[in-house]
Structures are given as structure tokens and as C-alpha cells.
Amino acid sequence: MLDIHTAPTPNGIKIPIAAEELGIPYRIIRLQLSRGDQKQPDFLAINPNGRIPAVVDHDVPGGPLAVFESGAILLHLAETRGGLIAPGVAGRAATMGWLFLQVGGLGPNFGNAGHFLGGAPEQIPYAIDRFQGEARRHLEVLERRLETQDWLDGHGYSVADIAHFCWVRSAGYAGLTLDDTPSLAKWAGRIAARPAVIRALAAIG
Ligand SMILES: N[C@@H](CCC(=O)N[C@@H](CS)C(=O)NCC(=O)O)C(=O)O
Asked: What is the predicted pLDDT for the residue at 84?
């Protein structure tokens, strides 16, 4: 059993999707972020950084094992369950490269673009331009890749696709659309239609 401590946000939906895709039995423990559940001592014992998602994996030798940071959780699940990661040294490196681009690049830029567009107490044009511009640039990097590849790592559907999908489907949060990135839009449509993705999104609500 995999306990998924999460909420219905772009980072929060990644892990239920991966669990559904890999056929892992899971339980969702839903946190209310506006109430600050993620800063409470019981959750900080699982993720000292006080952010969702985090998991407790009961099905690993020596478990239960707490894992935090969405990229680390995705890799943990892919490697322990054997799926959603390209095989071989070169394949694994490709999946990891595209996965890390999401957690270190597209995600933070989308998040900051959304914050400065809609959540900041004052409008700061430089900050909006900077983060929205970087978010758009990341969409263009994905578009170039998907013009020639069906899946980001060039091998198959992987945790890298799941991580990016969870943010790309919410491009509007960063004030962006997929109108100028048709290959990316088609890729997102293919992922959205997967039965495991539909089941995971329904489970998290
Ligand atoms: N780098 C982290 C980011 C996690 C993150 O920012 N989670 C947000 C929700 S999408 C959160 O917990 N926000 C509540 C807070 O910051 O207190 C990851 O990929 O897991």
C-alpha cells in the first residue's frame, strides 16, 4: 500500500497518476493547504519541507519508507515497480533529464508566473515578464521535442511525461495557452485520455 499525502494541485496529481499507471494499490490522504495541514508536525515528519506531495511506501523492504519531492517520488515508484522509465543507462539518463527539467525548470517558472499574475499583493511587470517568459520558453522546448518524438525521453511514456503533463494541462494558471504549440497540445490530449489518468484525477477530486 502506498499512502499518498497530497492535494489537487499540479504537483499533487502526479503521484496518483503514476500509481494508477503502475498498478500500485494506494490511499489518498488529502491535505487542506489553505488550512496549513502541510506545516503540521505529523506531515513535517514525512516531508520536512512542508509541501505536498509526499508518500509513505509500505511495500518496500525495510519499509514503511517516507519519500518527498515529486520528482524523487516518481523515480522511486518507477524504479521499485519497474515501469515508466526508459531502460539502460542512456534511457534512464534521458528520462531523468526530462523529469528534472520539469521539477527544476517548468514547474517553478509556471508557479512563479501564476503567483505574480494572480497571487501577489502588487503587480510587478518585470516579475510577470520574467517568469511568464520562462514558462513560455519551456513550452517551446517541449514543442520542439514533441515535433519529432511521441514521448519526451524518446523511448516511451514515462514519469517525465507525467510530471510535465500535470503542469501543461494548467497552462492557463501562468496566463498561457497551447495554441502555438500543436504537438504539445496533441501529446497532452493523448495523456489526458489514458484510463489511468482519468481514474487518478477522479480519485483526487
Ligand atoms: N518541488 C516540490 C514542490 C512542491 C510544491 O510546491 N507543492 C505545493 C502545491 S503544488 C505546496 O505544497 N504548496 C503549499 C505550501 O507551499 O505551503 C515538488 O516537486 O514536490
From this structure: 98
Q: What share of the chain is helix, strand, coil (3-state, %, to 5)?
A: 60, 10, 30
Tell me the C-alpha distance between 146 and 131, whole Å: 23
Ligand 1 atom 17 nearest Cα: 51
The CA 94 to ligand 1 mean position distance, Å, reads 25
Per CATH, the number for 88-194 is 1.20.1050.10
pLDDT in tens, 103-113: 999 999 999 99
* Ligand 1 center to 5 CA (angstroms): 12
Q: Does domain 2-83+197-204 have CATH number 3.40.30.10?
A: yes
Per-residue pLDDT, averaged over 43-63, amounts to 97
In the chain, what are the domain boundaries? 2-83+197-204, 88-194
Residue of 9, 51, 68 to test ligand 1 pocket, by largest number of atoms within 8 Å of CB: 51
Q: What is the pLDDT of residue 52?
A: 98
Q: Determine which helix (DSSP H) or strand (DSSP E) holds 96, and give its type and residue range.
A: helix 88-101
Q: Does the Cβ of 181 fall within 6 Å of ligand 1?
A: no
For atom 19 of ligand 1, the residue with the nearest CA is 70
